[in-house]
TrEMBL record:
InterPro entries: PPR_At4g14850-like_plant (IPR046960), PPR_rpt (IPR002885), TPR-like_helical_dom_sf (IPR011990). This is Pentatricopeptide repeat-containing protein. Keywords: Repeat. PPR repeats lie at residues 136-170, 237-271, 338-372. The keyword Repeat applies. One of its GO terms (biological process) is RNA modification. GO terms for molecular function: RNA binding.
Length: 457
């Protein structure tokens, strides 16, 4: 319960303190405590700690060197395996359960349904669900959530109706599993229907339900509906504040996001890494360097620096606010960087006209073994465009297509048009117009023809 509370409040310091106490008090080898610790660290966005806990608690057991497996043991382990999306390991545990004769245990099958769903294998999850003789609400909830998080909304709704048709009642977990948080686009009517059902059944008062609905409304840019739901919530949890602040930020309403954050501070709700990441994004969009520096102080005070998402958001904020040196210092101080971290720094250099530095960092990223995305290439091309680096831009474009097999988007072609257009390179523009789909990017062909005509006179 205490570990769940630490995760819910997003307090990393309390979480680490509880983790230490669990070890000191002799619960370090307890499987249920271990699984709860994995879940807590994931909710605190400390995936590295979650992985370490899993390796220490469960690997020996799974390999046969630890405590003997039984149904209770497996049920305790599966949530941690699912959170880490260790599909192969989960399959090994399932095989062992079959061998030891307790594979038909309903709690075990429900755990496996969650595992396969979180690993994207919803077909196998559904087969396991159909194998359950007497299904209960928990197994239905697991499968409803599994369908929803994999984008199979119609199957999720059908299963929800099937349970209601049997005369049984649903709970808040059923509703949260049904709400299309992961794939909201095109599902506004469904969200409205779920909202109406929640009001009628009284489940809208559950914070998890109202927060999920708020999140979907925000992602669909239905900000009035989201804010009304938020304001009407009797219990405003940290998750609900985060959903609303993130919604304003993602939809460009940055000043409102900052205002709501200040209101949250006055309500004595302590922010977590999700809150901080959203506010730093708002500061970056507004160019609010002073507020960004204040949030940086909050990050240090809360010991959030080790969180890769927070550090990346700080880099992005400093870079977009023009403080390139501070951004680079933070970048260099990070022990681990992901693709988004590199993109933020490369983009920062490009936006402020430091083309050579952006390209040096781009090639350093390639040499580091981190695979670039379309966003990475777009940032590098943008840097070439601003710095007038024609040859380098052409090389990067062809690297994206031929070395990494990424199909260019209209934004990539637009950057190339800008690069070649500024250099008045008609031949390369004509080649580009033949490569791209002119129906998607008509400007490529137009610019090529204009340059050709002007050079002909």
């Amino acid at each position: 319960m205490l570990l769940n509370a630490a995760a819910s409040f997003g307090d990393a310091k309390v979480g680490l303190l509880l983790h230490g106490n669990a070890i000191v008090d002799g619960f370090g080898s307890d499987l249920y405590v271990g699984s709860a610790l994995v879940d807590m660290h994931f909710k605190l966005f400390r995936e590295d700690w979650a992985q370490k806990v899993f390796d220490r608690r469960f690997k020996d057991m799974v390999s046969g060197n630890g405590p003997r497996f039984d149904a209770t043991t497996v049920i305790a382990v599966l949530p941690a395996v699912a959170e880490l999306q260790k599909l192969r390991l989960g399959m090994e545990i399932q095989c062992l359960a079959i061998k030891l004769g307790f594979h038909s245990h309903i709690s075990l099958l429900t755990g496996l349904i969650s595992l396969y769903s979180k690993c994207g294998n919803v077909e196998t999850a559904n087969l396991l669900f159909r194998d359950i003789g007497r299904k209960d609400l928990i197994s239905y909830n697991a499968m409803i959530s599994g369908f929803t998080c994999n984008g199979e909304i119609e199957s999720s709704v059908r299963l929800f109706r099937e349970w209601l048709g049997s005369g049984e009642k649903v709970n808040s977990s059923s509703i949260v599993g049904l709400i299309p948080v992961y794939s909201p686009f095109g599902h506004l009517l469904l969200t409205n229907c779920i909202h109406g059902f929640c009001v009628k059944s009284g489940t809208v008062s559950h914070s998890s339900v109202s927060t999920a609905l708020t999140t979907v409304y925000c992602r669909l840019n239905e900000m009035e509906s989201a804010r009304q739901l938020f304001d009407e919530s009797s219990e405003k949890t940290l998750a609900s504040w985060n959903a609303m602040i993130a919604g304003y930020t993602q939809n460009g309403l940055t000043e409102t996001a900052i205002s709501l954050f200040q209101e949250m501070q006055m309500s004595n709700v302590s922010p977590n890494t999700v809150t901080v990441t959203s506010i730093l994004s708002a500061c970056a969009q507004l160019g609010a360097l002073s507020l960004g520096k204040w949030v940086h102080g909050l990050v240090e005070n809360k010991s959030f620096e080790s969180n890769i998402y927070v550090s990346t958001a700080l880099i992005d904020m400093y870079a977009k606010c023009g403080s390139i040196l501070e951004a680079r210092q933070l970048f260099e101080s990070m022990p681990h960087k992901n693709e988004v971290t590199w993109n933020a720094m490369i983009s920062g250099y490009g936006v402020h006209g430091h083309g050579q530095e952006a390209l040096e960092l781009f090639y350093e990223m390639l040499n580091s073994g981190i695979r670039p995305s379309r966003v990475t290439f777009l940032s590098a091309l943008y840097a070439c465009s601003h710095a007038g680096l024609v040859r380098e831009g052409d090389e990067i474009f062809h690297c994206m297509v031929h070395d990494y097999g990424l199909e260019p988007l209209p934004e990539h072609y637009a950057c190339m048009v800008d690069i070649l257009g500024r250099a008045e390179n008609c031949r390369m523009l004509c080649n580009l117009s033949r490569e791209c789909r002119l129906s998607q990017v008509p400007c490529v062909g137009c610019v090529a023809r204009c340059l050709h005509d002007s050079q002909g006179h």
